[in-house]
Amino acid sequence: SASGESAHLVYMGWATKDELPIELERIKDFEAKTPGITVEYLQVPGDQYVTKMNTMASSNTLPDIAMINEAQCLKWA
Fold first, then answer.
1. Residue 62 in contact with residue 56, Cβ under 8 Å?
2. Which residues pair with 10 in a beta bridge?
3. What is the tens place of the pLDDT at every residue in 52-77?
4. Which of 40, 54, 43, 39 is nearest to 14 (CA)?
5. I need a labelling partner for 10 at 20 to 30 A (CA). Which of 26, 50, 59, 75 fits?
6. Single pTM value for the model
7. Per-residue CA distances from 19 to 14, 22, 26, 40 (Å)
């Protein structure tokens, strides 16, 4: 950034093996367009996702950004 500040964001998602390259490419594109911001992708299998989110919430370590399906979004709201 122009101010020289930087930020590191954690983005959690459930990308499958086939989807992972697409997610990583999106992150790479985002980082190229937003100098100073780096994104760490935290891949969690879909069948473990809600448990992981709940565990992270209870330990105050939630990601900065997360994929949330509609049913879970309503519960989290």
1. yes
2. 40
3. 999 999 999 999 999 998 888 888 87
4. 43
5. 75
6. 0.86
7. 9, 5, 11, 16
